[in-house]
Design goal:
heterotrimer, A alpha/beta (about 300), B alpha+beta (about 90), C alpha/beta (about 375), B: about 90 residues, alpha+beta, Alpha-Beta Plaits, two-stranded antiparallel sheet, 2 helices, 5 strands, C: about 375 residues, alpha/beta, Rossmann fold, six-stranded mixed sheet, 12 helices, binds thiamine diphosphate, binds iron/sulfur cluster
Chain lengths: ~300, ~90, ~375
């Protein structure tokens, strides 16, 4: 779908509490344009719980249930079950959760909801940190990134949640990035025609969390994809395929940019360049990207 | 709008739920309509829904624009530039 | 009306089925398991037109009930002990969201060591969550209370969730005869569920976003009002039930042979049934003992206890729970509500039956004797050995 064909309706209303340049509202706007008004959102504790603004007003114009941090997927199971009984199964049941609520504390509920074939769309907007509580590490934080709980850089590599989801044999899973709204829009639209659990994870570059200036949200997402640090793919009917620039990278038609181009712009990686270049850790990042690609290419060829 | 009497945390949709967030702005996006090629990229990327679209034309809603500069950055023809906010 | 002989758990499942919830989400735990098995069977056999969500934990069971109730349908769940503790966060959530969820809790001890027998510390630990709490002493009472609970909590003056407690391996697995009304009669008593707020795509609202102190404070105050309101509703509903179905177990409390009593026992749950036997036995020996069986621990039956203490100033309170570092919850709350209101009240607290240790009418007779003989202190650990 071309941008000019996106619906004009806004479900994320202006005058909300998001930081300037916020990737969550950026992504959610597109997602809700695709889903339309017949949508119920459930949102666990995360930045988006704050973004909605304060009681007795809300900046979200679709019914929204806030729920405890680890409980979004199970609340969605309840919503979907109730809608079934009410004969309103044409309504989209959607979780919008951060990476903390998805990779870490909410993983059990998510796994359970998928396993029991909840008819819902689970979206993780992945800003690679716990932003709400002031930038702590999560299972999604990349290696070497500064957070307030990894002050010298994270020592571990991020969890591969995509594979965890795929291991549940979902009918549909995909990655996306706020910088590619057409791709995101199409992926969300596609889920609407599929019954059962659907999962989309959106890379969401967060200016305060990643330490870059607020006008660079879109560039930061693009560079993540162009350097190969974030892979765009779709998993459907047991098949994995790459999309957009990631597809060109996989086919050897696009030479990924050096990952330093992405790292250098983010304050959270500044210790890799100052006082001198930390070759060891930068190489570890490169190796990890290469290994991840090799692994996903294998999955795609299955 | 349907109102519920139950005393629990029920909130109702409102434009400007946080007030006029335009007051947060330090830099202000200025749109040059003559340069604009109506690609709508600024509209789709604005994190604030502060760019209004009428058909394929865009207009900035300064009541709510937080001045992040995303629109200026994504504009392929530099039809939006950021200027210091004067108040 | 027919008489069915069955265990407390199957009776609870039957009551839930007859209340016609649309969504049931539950997770098995001894000794609750047969409740959820019972419901699952009703759903499988099309005797209950509901979605049965086999969640992966009790935390998710309550979260799913919250999601379903917020979408506008009647819900049911059941749990026990560790399951109830795992739900704790969501119990608060359900109550603050003012969702009239009904749950059975089969009272069971908490580990370590693993102990599956009756103990009320699981539910007592939830007393500040905003849930109404009922304690049953017979299978008939379990049946009646489950259905009554829906009518109570769905009343717009209440709109708080309710927990119906039954003793693990005492009521849960004991078969007793229960009078079961016709479905049609239950339907007349309990009309279809009308949500008082819901997630509705035609009227979008957001529930539970950021709220500041002044408004939050008011919401808490309104929960308190709702608990207060529920006192009257509990009484009305118990009366209506009696008129319609003939069975009655009291309302917030059940008074048994208290009129001329010189010593009144306060007890909850299955101990309440034993206490009745004890009262009859002791009275045969010419001692005037009565029972004030606490059916509702939340809302706390303050007026009833004060009224009783004014008539009879010796109260023997039995707790199958312990607020470690203080005393049994019922004794503590009884003392607190009598303080400055009934000057000469004497409250004798007895901790008994923790971890499923038997508490028979003989034990209760002995407790009474200790009080009558002036041998009971402020708090007694009965039967420590
Ligand atoms: C049980 C529980 N533990 C901790 C918290 C505190 N908490 C709220 S949001 C949050 C982090 C959310 O991180 P993420 O899911 O990545 O979303 P983000 O804030 O980055 O948008 C934490 C730790 C909580 N609300 N509940
Ligand atoms: S911290 Fe990041 S994700 Fe959270 S509101 Fe701000 S910009 Fe958005
Ligand atoms: S500066 Fe930011 S908030 Fe303002 S119109 Fe541009 S993108 Fe929207
Ligand atoms: S991005 Fe630039 S060219 Fe495109 S619509 Fe906006 S102002 Fe016009």
């Amino acid at each position: 779908m071309a941008i000019k064909d996106f619906p004009i309706e806004e479900y994320v209303l202006p005058g909300n509490a998001a930081c300037p340049g916020c990737p969550s509202t950026m992504g959610l706007r597109t997602v809700l344009k695709a889903l339309g008004k017949k949508t119920i959102l459930t949102i666990p504790a995360c930045c988006t719980a704050v973004i909605q603004s304060w009681y007795p007003y809300t900046s979200f114009n679709v019914p929204t249930l806030n729920i405890a941090f680890e409980a979004a997927a199970s609340a969605a199971s309840g919503i979907a079950a109730a809608l079934k009984k009410l004969g309103e199964e044409d309504i989209n049941v959607v979780v919008w959760a951060g990476d903390g609520g998805t990779y870490d504390i909410g993983l059990q509920a998510l796994s359970g909801a998928i396993e029991r074939q909840t008819n819902f769309l689970y979206i993780c907007y992945n800003n690679q940190i716990y932003s709400n509580t002031g930038i702590q590490r999560s299972g999604a934080t990349p290696y070497a990134a500064w957070t307030t709980t990894t002050v010298k850089g994270k020592k571990e590599f991020r969890k591969d949640i995509g594979e965890i989801i795929i291991a549940h044999h979902v009918p549909y899973a995909a990655t996306a990035c706020v910088s590619y709204p057409e791709d995101l829009y199409n992926k969300v639209k596609k889920t609407m025609g599929i019954r059962g659990p659907k999962y989309i994870e959106i890379l969401a570059p967060c200016p305060p969390g990643w330490r870059f200036s607020m006008d660079k949200t879109v560039e930061m997402g693009k560079l993540a994809v162009e350097t190969g640090a974030w892979i765009l793919y779709e998993y459907e009917n047991g098949k994995l395929s790459f999309n957009g620039i990631s597809k060109s990278i996989a086919e050897g038609k696009y030479k990924p940019k050096p990952v330093e181009d992405w790292l250098k712009l983010q304050g959270r990686f500044s210790h890799l360049f100052k006082p001198e270049k930390d070759i060891v850790r930068i190489n570890a990042i490169k190796d990890h990207i290469r290994d991840t690609w090799e692994h996903y290419k294998k999955l795609a060829s299955l | 709008m349907k109102k519920y009497n139950v005393k629990t945390g029920i909130s109702y949709p409102k434009i400007g739920a946080m007030g006029k967030t335009g007051t947060w702005r330090i830099f202000k996006p200025i749109l040059d309509k003559n340069k604009c090629i109506k690609c709508l990229r600024c509209w789709v990327f604005c994190p604030e829904s502060a760019i209004k679209r009428r058909n394929d034309s865009v207009e900035i809603d300064y009541d709510y624009c937080k001045g992040c500069g995303v629109c200026a950055n994504v504009c392929p023809v530099k039809a939006i530039v950021m200027a210091k906010e004067e108040r | 009306m027919k008489v069915v002989i069955d265990t407390g758990n199957y009776i609870a499942a039957r009551a839930a089925m007859m209340a016609k919830p649309k969504v049931v989400a539950a997770y098995p735990i001894t000794p609750q398991t047969t409740i959820v098995e019972g419901i699952a069977k009703y759903v499988e056999n099309d005797e209950l037109d509901a979605e049965y969500i086999c969640v992966e934990s009790e935390h998710s069971a309550m979260s799913a009930c919250i999601g379903a109730a917020a979408t506008g349908v009647r819900t049911f769940t059941a749990t026990s002990s560790h399951g109830l503790l795992l739900m704790h966060e969501m119990l608060h959530w359900a109550a603050l969201a003012r969702l009239p969820i009904v749950m059975c809790n089969v009272n069971r001890a908490i580990g370590p060591g693993w102990n599956i027998w009756c103990d009320e510390n699981d539910s007592i630990a939830q007393r500040d969550t905003g849930w109404l709490q009922f304690y049953c002493s017979s299978n008939q009472e379990v049946f009646d209370t489950v259905i009554q609970a829906y009518k109570i909590v769905e009343n717009e003056k209440v709109l708080l969730p309710a927990m119906i407690n039954l003793g693990g391996f005492i009521l849960s697995h004991t078969s007793l005869p229960v009078r079961i009304p016709e479905q049609k009669e239950v339907d007349e008593f309990l009309p279809p569920y009308e949500p008082k707020w819901r997630l509705d795509v035609n009227h979008p609202i957001t529930h539970g976003n950021i709220i500041f102190p002044d408004d939050y404070y008011k919401i808490r105050y309104n929960m308190q009002l709702a608990q207060d309101n529920s006192r009257k509703i509990i009484k009305e509903v118990a009366r209506e039930w009696r008129e319609k179905f003939g069975t009655y177990h009291g309302d917030l409390v059940e008074e048994y042979r208290c009129d001329d009593a010189e010593l009144v026992i306060l007890a909850m749950g299955a101990i309440g049934a034993e206490a009745k036997v004890a009262v009859d036995k002791i009275r045969k020996n010419g001692l005037k003992v009565g029972l004030l069986r606490i059916r509702a621990f939340r809302p706390f039956p303050e007026e009833e206890i004060i009224g009783m203490a004014k008539k009879c100033n010796k109260l023997l309170v039995i707790d199958r729970n312990i607020s470690v570092g203080n005393e049994g919850a019922l004794a503590g709350e009884t003392r607190a509500c009598l303080k400055d209101r009934v000057e000469d009240a004497n409250v004798y607290g007895f901790i008994a039956g923790l971890g499923g240790k038997d508490v028979t009418y003989i034990d209760i007779e002995k407790m009474c004797k200790m009080v009558i003989d002036g041998k009971a202190g402020r708090v007694e650990w009965y039967g420590l050995g």
